[in-house]
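#onboarding

Welcome to the new folks! Below is a worked example of what a typical request in this channel looks like: someone posts a single protein sequence, and someone else replies with the predicted structure as tokens. Don't worry about understanding the tokens yet, we'll cover that in week two.

Example request:
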Amino acid sequence: MTKQVNIVAHQIKFFVMALLVATAVSTQLFAPSASAVTPHYCENKIVKQGSKHKCVKYAKQILNGISKTHAGDKDNGYTITASQLKVNTTFNAAMTKKVRTFQGWSGIAVDGKVGGYTWIYLCSFAQYDYKYVPNSVTKTAYQAGINAGCVY
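Example response:
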């Protein structure tokens, strides 16, 4: 019985995430131009280890929100840890590790870079977590999603 409950919970989680991603993608198709939303439109940017950019800061803030809200959650062989990244504009090895864990946990391609689907998933979590688990860290993550141009 427990195994069936876990399977159903897993299916519900991925259904909700698929719905959030679909909503994010469709929103992007009809969204105003990037310059009308924010000067830091990060969803169209790929950041990776060694990058120095405001989008790195926003990604770190969102990852910290996910770490706070989902610490201990396990999926696809990956576990979200509670450790927080130092928030700055430098993409370092600690962030690469955190991004790879998030990607694997989310079921998307694991490459350690933040671009494309990783931005969509990060921003979906920023919006969803703040709505349902409001605290100072998820509020900061939500604001980072707005600043990144991917949460409206």
